[in-house]
């Protein structure tokens, strides 16, 4: 996957550093990292960003916390209850880490999309789920199951337009479970559906789909 100019570069680099990027996606990212200085720089950025969390000392919870938890769970007080809660000494650290990660994560206001679209293969295997908001001109992508790709292939999303050639909406993630928001640079109100094609690294060189269309679906109102 070519990540030189991809908006997914920072997301994948952060997931790689956190350890949540796994399996084939992690191996593809490592190959991209070996070939690209900008990808390596993105990884270094996130390593430095998360480094302070590793240096934080464990935080001792307040004395009132354990009795309060025991009372809510209906457990007897004493050593037996302490043995059942071995994670309490790390509770403070976990809270600090969670807050720190939230500060780094981009915040997106909750807006109800106009409709949802599911793209599946001809065999019926669901690959992607899309939430489309024509009013605010964005699409939320959830990767359900990525097809097998080589390091020289990327996935490109297309807007189907009635009476015209499909228009590119950019590359989409190849990481199962990944969520991605695409801010469309063209009016989604013109579209009648979505399609995904397999393209060379970085996307189609011609502005039109050059590889196989592996999934296609019309909008509900189209």
TrEMBL record:
Residues 94-213 form the Anti-sigma K factor RskA C-terminal domain. InterPro entries: Anti-sigma-K/W_factor, RskA_C. GO terms for cellular component: plasma membrane. PANTHER family: ANTI-SIGMA-K FACTOR RSKA. GO terms for biological process: regulation of translation. GO terms for molecular function: sigma factor antagonist activity. The chain crosses the membrane at residues 87-107. This is Anti-sigma K factor RskA C-terminal domain-containing protein. Keywords: Membrane, Transmembrane, Transmembrane helix.
